[in-house]
Specification:
The structure is a homotetramer of 366-residue chains. Chain A has helices at 38-48, 96-100, 108-115, 130-148, 186-201, 229-238, 259-262, 332-358, and strands at 5-6, 11-16, 22-28, 65-69, 71-72, 75-76, 81-86, 153-161, 164-165, 208-215, 243-248, 266-269, 272-275, 283-284, 287-288, 293-299, 309-312, 318-321. Chain A is an alpha+beta fold and 366 residues long. A five-stranded antiparallel beta sheet of chain A has the order 1-2-3-7-4, with helices on one face. In chain A, strands 9-8-10-16-11 form a five-stranded antiparallel beta sheet. A two-stranded antiparallel sheet of chain A has the order 5-6. In chain A, a hairpin with a 2-residue loop joins strand 14 and strand 15 (287-288). Chain A is globular.
């Protein structure tokens, strides 16, 4: 990871601000011969698109992605791919207040301190709009994965909103697509709807936990010591706006286990090793086992809220701030497709890295 | 991060296996003119050294570090520094069993699948001995930071062992150095001693949570979007053996907060901005605020235990495994100096990156 | 250098094909606070623009550059800058022949072999149109350098066309801007005009040598061993289309010298060290001396010519090929601003790297 | 390339000074399963070893390489390999003069200016002893290539010493190993012996040109635009001490050719495309064609000579300097195995990169 780039071989560099003319992703190291077109990418962007229901920002962006390079006759050529998304809903507004005050919990003050200036329109580069570029790049990664690992699926969902967690006994993969919160627990979906509506009306916001699972990932991806699959996944998820924690498998709860309880015992199945459990989240020693890869991350509540908070101005004067505008009461919702995109990019990157170093062969068992 | 290297400008590449002749760290991008010698590095290695009490592995390694390059007349020259640690306590033993069986929860099986072969002596490259090299590199980073940011301190400590957490009301910085668990809670230290002793005798192991705090870090370090300070810290900590979760500030608990509760309100102090709280863990938008930088990570229990677990052999036969040998009942203890070392490396790296891009100046407030 | 990216801290990733909708450069690591706007970049692009005289391709591209991100209120913000140039003159033509035959001396056959497919329209990614993106990025680098090193100037010029070399006794800096060949020798300019006109009419093309000089570069830039200033300059120039050789200072001719003749003797001047000569081209041990940095590179003749050459088809059949279209009889002419751009990018990159590692201070002499 | 590291996937980081305890190479990204041991590497180091005849430095270094990690039971494991070479012939001498004066044409002054201090013993990090580490790493690359591309051979030789060039009509591959200059022209070998002996006695030194050829390299290696095979070769060769120019194929002479003369015409042979000539040096558009890869580089004369040259002291006083000690009268001789090593590293790196991105398949012709 290097400023605006992530990835080793499949490298994604994003660019663009919330209220500039456009934003996008420059994607390098794409395998040649991948079938891809704009509608395939748009499918994923539409899932992240704002303004789809009352639980997300009312900004109306079509987030229409254009492929400007690297694809010829519907196929990737192996050269760098440019994915561009125009910004269209940039309301003219008075930026005087936001340009002079720092929102608590927001990047306003640190950008000012680091760079000496900032593009304050809509948060500039620190806006979560940047994640649209990730979703576009993730769509491209998915297209490549579909050819290289046809059985791989990547699915994200919310497991917690504020203090409210799902009931894992009611986990239903099909439910995820049916509710506005991407949650696998239909009961939680109903409960959260009321809860979030009340919060929004009160001028407040709330955090969330998202889990992303990759099923069908082959063993052998990831590279010790600093190119571990979990290391790169942790970096990928932590780089998403507002994320404050990342877990692999049992995550922080692993600390409470004993070695006996934590052992994912191994047996021999018809297609190779099988495991009695998946505390490890599908990764051992930084390398995938072939089990489900399970990553979880926490998103803090939006700092842009209607409730006044104490802050200072650029001149150092103390004041209050109320952030009007079209903000997500729970940004975690729209982080679900973003987390999926990051998972897709990391897995593809490691697939390419692995076949680069090892040729992609696997040590035989049995 | 790239296989065995981490860092952007201050780049650390580690090498070596548990039972090879030596291991070490090749450190590039070191600022010139830093006063450093072997005893300064040895100080930090001694804290991680095995065999210091009954709670850590009884392997007896002096872990004596040698500086082979990049330092002249007691000062870094700006060229690559080689830090080497000889392996001395390599007991001859019969590796037949471990070479044929995969320990559940261990990298044995994934190394085999990825590479087709593995150095099974003591875990080879997947052994936590690799972290000695990190501590050596971290010592070098600390020496550079001591010149560049004299007021910076980096302190790690345990906040949880198995299900037992510290009482933050009893937090005492001075206590950390007084007990074998590096915990700031004297009450916990006593409790944990009994608990861990029992676990060890029963042939089991347990996980832990470590927190690392950097005090006195200047604002402005870190670089959006993929070079965020928290992104790099998450990667750095997740790359440590057995780590399954990483948190910044409130971490996973941030998900349960509302925006009102989560806001670290800002006031103007005599030396610049001050904050009412530190939910953010000292980082906003990936850039340091000047508050304490707070990182927490969970270490799973050692998978090498004396209690039999089900597994398979390289030939695919089902069997049981009992891992004899000199293993840590709670590897989290020795992860404390490792976490500190990673924090030191990441902060120094970002200090250099920042002055590279911005010249190290700060946007004025007030 | 990594596929489509070059640079360490000031990192340029280019994208786009000759006949796609657009091409551009994504520039990361730009220092904040640099005054820049589109006309400042356009100035440099106009120098490379095709169709300006009969000695360059008759393709008519305005090469109008747009800044899509990273600049706010006329100043860089420190975030990634997107520079986009639309392709406007894409004549519809019959690509059947070029899609089936490989031009000798062209990337057609190697792209086909590597990727299994290629964008054959105008050479796709292998077209020299990619260098427009470099010139745009170079313009941005120049803007940053103008603030950081105000006295630095970077000037490129042709010293040889085909077998015809300039007479260094007639070297005139002011002449460079006066003739269509960017040559400092007015006598050569006249001679070359006739020579090239004849070549063009005969359906042939010719090579050239370009020299780029940076005057006013501070000492201390560059980093041994693999980040040497000359190493990066060599890579930068060799990456330009059709370049087959790169020289620093005396270059290949240094082989013929004795140590006595090659020594640039040092004396003490009022502002620091002075040198009796500059065989070294301003770089010793990979680090700038403060003298003029002198780089020279050879451009081979365009392989797209009207004279029939023997080749094969994708089906492996032997045939002849004649490349019609709007090709430069001497691509070296338009390589002059490209070489300047690469010099600007490399110097800025090393300026940032140096102040990152060393803080930008200099060891005192005297 | 990044300070002390080169390579994308096969990454070599070198460390060590001329008169420190040791030097070496940390090699990352090595494919697993490569048969290698110390004698295999020593074979290549012995070719570069000083003191083998009167034409090279009389320093007596065994240059014995040790493999400290990454190899188990005679096979690479896929983890980082440490190759260490102890310095044994470090004569105690009086460094007063060399520590106070800057040798013209040497890195003394630029290291001082950049870092504020330097390890002046034997040139420290700027000593050509660093190239021993490259040769060791190159030996490892050759071992991997021997398994991956069995027919590949890499051979370097001198084509020019001072003003004296070989007669290509007398080119004999077998002659290269028979004379102390690695030249394929027996006639030149005799001539050069007398010439160099006279130069050495007169206290002078001389430059050289080395050519390195890779035969049997598959097509498809190299990646446009900034990861071109020729770009990386240019960087690799230019990074060798004292190199001032690099050429691919016809190199600088390509400038004098017309497009008609420069075209390597293509025909269809029994095993694929064949070429009428190899002006391109086996690389088109940055990608290998399958022809011989031909790289040439010029080495300047050693700046450490016995003839007095004017210079200044650290205090800025003007003085003369005579460099006594055991210096090579023609460092180009020992650069031959170094050039070969760099070629091996670059080709292996691109082989891994290529199979990472494309899977290593080739677009069919015919």
């Amino acid at each position: 990871m290097s400023l605006n780039t992530f990835g080793h071989l499949f490298r994604v560099t994003t660019w663009g601000e919330s209220h500039g003319p456009a934003l996008g992703a420059t994607v390098d190291g794409v395998p040649p011969g991948v079938a891809v077109d704009e509608p395939m990418l748009q499918h994923w962007l539409d899932r992240r698109k704002p303004g789809q229901n009352k639980y997300t920002t009312q900004r109306r962006e079509p987030d229409a992605v254009r492929i400007l390079s690297g694809v010829f006759d519907g196929t990737t050529t192996g050269t760098s791919v440019q994915l561009m998304i125009a910004n269209t809903d940039q309301r003219s507004k008075d930026y005087t207040e936001i340009s002079q005050k720092f929102r608590p919990g927001h990047a306003d003050i640190t950008y000012h301190q680091k760079y000496g200036l900032r593009d304050y329109r809509g948060g500039g580069r620190s806006s979560a709009r940047e994640t649209a570029a990730r979703v576009a790049a993730g769509g491209l990664a998915r297209a490549a994965l579909a050819q290289l690992v046809p059985n791989l699926t990547i699915t994200g969902y919310m497991t917690q909103m504020g203090p409210k967690t799902i009931d894992r006994a009611r986990f239903d993969w099909d439910e995820i697509e049916r509710n506005p919160f991407w949650t696998p627990d239909a009961g939680a979906a109903g409960d959260w709807a009321t809860y979030l509506d009340d919060l929004r009306k009160s001028g407040d916001s709330v955090g969330a936990v998202i889990e992303v699972v990759a099923r069908g990932c082959p063993p052998g991806l990831g590279a010790p010591i600093y190119g571990k699959l979990d290391t790169d996944l942790a970096a990928a998820m932590m780089s998403i706006n507002a994320v404050k924690g990342v877990e692999i498998g049992d995550g922080m709860a692993a600390a409470a286990l004993t070695g006996v309880a934590n052992a994912d015992e191994i047996t021999m199945g018809p297609d190779g090793p099988e495991y009695s459990s998946n505390h490890a989240g599908g990764i051992l020693g930084g390398i995938s086992t072939g089990q489900d890869i399970v990553v979880r991350f926490a998103v803090k509540p939006t700092s842009s809220i209607l409730t006044p908070r104490r802050t200072i101005t650029v001149d150092g004067d103390e004041t209050d701030i109320v952030t009007k505008g079209r903000h997500d009461p729970c940004v975690g919702i729209r982080a679900v497709p973003v987390g999926e995109a990051m998972m897709a990019c990391v897995i593809l990157d490691h697939l390419l890295l692995d076949r680069g170093q090892t040729g992609g062969t696997r040590g035989a068992i049995g």
